[in-house]
Amino acid sequence: MKKYTTIFASLFACAAAFADSNGTLNGSSDPFNPALWSDTANWVDGIPASGKTSGTGIAYLASSSSGASYFLVDEDASINSVYASTGNLGEYHLSVADGKTLTTSGANNRLFISDNAQPAANTKFYFDSGVITETGSIAMYLPQNGNEIIIGVDATVNFNSFKVRSLASANHTKYVTLNGTFTSSGPVEIYGNTKSGSSTAFVIGSTGSVTTGSSSISTFKVNGVGVSIDTTNTDNNTNVGSAVEVYGNLTVNATGTSNFRGYGLGNSAPTVVVRDGGVVTFAKSNLSVYAASHENAGTVLNVESGGTLSTKIFNVFGNGTNYTAQRTAISSGTFTATGVLIKNYGDFEITGGTFTSGYAEIDMNSKLSVSGGVADFGNYIYIAQVGKLAVSTSGDWSGTQLLYRGGQTTLDLSGNSTLEVAGIFLHEKVTGKKTDITIESGSKLIVGSTSGTAAYLPEDMVSLVALTNTNYLNFIDFEEGSVAFKEIGDAADQAAALSHIKLDGAYSEDLRFSDFDSSIGGYWLTTAPIPEPSTWAAILGAVALGFAAYRRRK
């Protein structure tokens, strides 16, 4: 059984008025005098008891060995802060007795491990069980390589606000591993590791539960690394671990900003990873992810298979340079959003699982890719100038309109996929612009109608039939049997639609709609010539001769 020692005997003889340099301890104005700590009646195993101190001191838990030291708070107690002492190496285990609470307080406070105390490298602090409530604000700064805080499955920490980061020179395996319960009513900010080779900063274990942001000023922010990046110093920003990994539950009730910012370069891990079994919920706020402002930026968010994320609006901001260098966000889990906005060279790829959104908007120079899973984009996908939609898996988007605005927009189909959409609409006021459609051999595009009414038509988006300007769809390397329309209207509607369709940049006099094909319930776009009457006669004659020969053989 663990031996909980009285920490008066092993307490590092130092207390500081962290929030108020003129604070008192045991009625004295000199809290730095070790002699004032001799009255054990004023301490609960080394922690000042409630009502017996002003609560402005800092308790340093000191260990004389490199082994494990255990400290127990068995009464309600109040202190400014408590953390491992300077220089000692080992494990510090703190527990609060059942039904008791250790209350800490102070602005920009420290807890468990602090840059103020500077414990030795590889010192670890375990909060094993019980309840700690912080009435001020917490900032965990882990100063040395290998410093780590582990919050046990039976432990609960309650904060007004919370921040965790390392010092720039430190290289950590982890900052914080949470297996218990964590709440913060106010702002939360988590900074990832800085040094190359560092791993995840904040891990929410499978039994861990985080609930943040119940106050009006609440925000939730994750930053890829702990300091601003000098992109010329590649040692500091390549092969950097994630800032947050979620195996358990993260519920964000923040009404203010919620964002993830990535700074990793090269082969750095995603800034935030939702692992198998992890559940992340943004109940009241939008979630924005930002790639670093350099070309070789790493992925910011990855929802892995078995992971779940739900939010209101999901904003994907790229690096502002070139989306081919990175994917800002990836999902192969279960992802639900009110809407998706991809901007500033953002790149969002759905590789599997289930994705559900009310709509999607792909802004200039941005990209949405669907390469696996089941995706539902609701009423529409809006693609602005130089925006790209790439699909390499079959999908039934028969309730979704594709709305193309401006030039150099694209739709790429590949992977023997069949994609069905409700309609394709072009912008009426922007003239002479093309939308390039590339359909790889074996893939098919099925469009609901040439002239239907879109469920949502912003900025004068109109159908191919209603379009009066020179905008057009441009099919690259067109193949027979690759494009079909389920409804084509009368002869006038067909002529109007065909006037806005080109093949490899040129109109074709042979382009037309085929006869009705019951296998797809529609009409193929084709350039095959219509047989002349004489051709039909020859065909019918050949059929008749063949039938007569068959009868004779019988």
Describe the structure in your own words.
The protein is mainly beta and 554 residues long. The chain is 6% helix and 40% strand. It has a 42-stranded mixed β-sheet that branches. A two-stranded antiparallel sheet has the order 1-2. A hairpin with a 2-residue loop joins strand 1 and strand 2. The longest helix has 21 residues. The chain starts with 6 loop residues before the first helix and ends with a helix.
What's the short version?
The chain is mainly beta.
Helical/strand content category: mainly beta
Count of DSSP H/I helices? 3
Q: What is the CA-atom radius of gyration, in angstroms?
A: 32 Å
Q: Which regions are unreliable across 5 or more consecutive residues at pLDDT < 50?
A: 1-57, 226-236
How far is the N terminus from the C terminus?
97 Å
Specify the biggest β-sheet. 42 strands, mixed
Shape: elongated
Provide the β-strand percentage band.
35-45%
Overall pLDDT, averaged? Answer: 78
Proportion of helical residues: under 10%
Number of strands: 46
Question: Helices, strands, pairings?
Answer:
Layout: H1 7-10, E1 43-44, E2 47-48, E3 58-61, E4 68-73, E5 77-79, E6 81-84, E7 91-96, E8 101-104, E9 124-134, E10 138-142, E11 148-159, E12 162-166, E13 176-178, E14 181-184, E15 188-191, E16 202-204, E17 209-212, E18 220-223, E19 244-246, E20 249-252, E21 258-261, E22 272-274, E23 279-282, E24 287-290, E25 301-303, E26 308-317, E27 329-331, E28 334-343, E29 347-350, E30 354-357, E31 360-362, E32 367-370, E33 374-376, E34 380-383, E35 388-391, E36 395-404, E37 409-413, E38 418-427, E39 434-439, E40 444-449, E41 461-463, E42 472-476, E43 483-487, H2 491-498, E44 501-503, E45 512-513, E46 523-526, H3 533-553
Parallel strand pairs: 3-6, 4-7, 5-8, 7-9, 8-9, 9-11, 10-12, 11-13, 11-14, 12-15, 13-16, 14-17, 15-18, 16-19, 17-20, 18-21, 19-22, 20-23, 21-24, 22-25, 23-26, 24-26, 25-27, 26-28, 27-29, 28-30, 28-31, 29-32, 30-33, 31-34, 32-35, 34-36, 35-37, 36-38, 37-39, 38-40, 39-42, 40-43, 42-44
Antiparallel strand pairs: 1-2, 38-41, 43-46, 45-46
